[in-house]
Structure prediction request, 606 residues.
Amino acid sequence: MSSGNKTSNIHLSRASLGDDKPVKLPAESKAFIQKELKRYERRESALIPALFEAQKVFGWISEEVIDVLAMEMDIPHSRVAEVADFYTMFNKKPVGKYHIQVCTNISCAMVGARETADYFCSKLGMKLEEVSRDGKFTVSQVECLGSCGTAPMAQINDDYHENLTHEKIDKLIEKLK
Amino acid sequence: MEQKLLMKHYENDEYASYKGYVKHDGYAALKKAFTMKPDDIIAEVKNSGLRGRGGAGFSTGMKWSFLPKNNEPRFLLCNADEGEPGTFKDRMMMERAPHQLIEGMIISAFAIQSKKSYIYIRGEYNESYKIVEKALKEAYDAGMLGKNIMNSGFDHDMDVYRGAGAYIVGEETALISSLEGLKGQPKLKPPFPAVQGYLRKPTIVNNVETLAAVTWIITNGAGAYKKYGTEKSAGTKLFSVSGNINKPGVYEVPLGYPFKDLLENECGGMKQGFNFKALIPGGSSCPVLNKEEALKSTMDYECMSQLGSMLGSGGVIVIDDKQCMVDLLKVLMHFYHHESCGQCTPCREGTGWLEKLTNGIGAGTAKLEDVGLLDKVARHMMGTTICALSDAAALPVISFVSKFRDEFECHVREHRCKVKGKCHAQDHH
Prediction:
């Protein structure tokens, strides 16, 4: 527990030197995290919900975000970092405001999902995993999202978009732009 | 023919709400369960022949009976971390009938005398999470959860937990690690979760479909359930069917149902311009069946095992003649390499080598003997690790190479794909 505080203090001093913008959790996020810490039998179970909350606020999980969570939750930095690293839904680098995740696993691949991912990219004039210049889009290929019967599909942030066609994609992008 | 025991009311939108569920005799099974002794419920489930619907197919009643006979606190966990490629039935069950699952869980919890349960839902299923969360609130408000449920004297609390993207968490000991706030890595068994699971307490982990089936079994009895299916595969099963077919979707049929009928009748056959080529019968980890094997197969545990495959989670992946098997294996090997948790050397390194070899063969940069090497690496990965992910990666390799060797050799020898379709195997990396 003390190591969590220690790491965080180092970060605070780094931030105070003006190296980078200090990362601060909003009050409602802090309240949410404190509630989650009491919700489960083990405090550590609150790590995944807390990381989701932080990602909602900051868009991705940077070293600084891990520091702040470690301090807020009084859980060692290394524990927060390993959980953030293990699960694919936590972005380890910045992504666009709309993260377009196209499933390209077997059932989707068979009905042309890799071409679907390419179509998203060409439509937005970007490559996979890039962030568009306006910061709005990232296109990724991801593993099975359990939408095999309604393929091709893409998860954009929290929402599923199924049975995708070029026409549907055009409309979707138009709406998000 | 479809036999909708669990899916009977799924097309009715109001079935997802507490009110709509109760209108169709919802929570009547729970009321009945409270008139039974916990041990009698376990016996009923055991007699029904219900086998775990998540993939392993182990007897549910038997699993429950492994719990220690003492007063130690115990937990029930619902495995809703559906992640096996080709499988999407649990998602539908949670979205169409969350109370059927919740009711099955309360009955199961009462049977094993557990006061606390969790539904662990994969992170990507945000819609399912919201629906289950709402249903839990409704169940609490109606007094189906909490203290002294239906004046039975039984207390039970249920909560929902959202995962964050990791295929391996579908393995029950990994699911427990994840729920405890750790990396989702599997643990060595024994001790089995029934003896030492969540918080090192006795824990039962059951799949969504398994727990929902408990509701039906308690309402109608073990005998009624056994009327469906075969001797060793009792009841109905929900199959998620995908591929270039006319009507992909989830179908509930009695176990033992011929695959050919499922494809032709329920799924409306192959899409125009596509011919049936091969079948992965139970999710991506199950060995592939060639056309001849598939068309004579029946959808049950014993037939699939006789054919050297598995029924798994019931993720029926229909492969058509436009698909290159090297290309599909490449997709799968990328997946297993990505999802290996990294604990055990044969899996961590092996899945990497399987992917590299498959890519090399696809691109035509490999040597002909690499096709044999691919098979050899896979065989060395079997049974050498803590969990079954290593085997799950090896099994498709062995079956793909042995049944479609000509396609692999053509990629190497002639630097081309035999199949007339969109093969991505020759793409560069």
Notes: The helical segments of chain A are 2-16, 27-39, 47-58, 63-73, 77-86, 106-110, 113-124, 166-176. The first helix of chain A runs from residue 2 to 16.
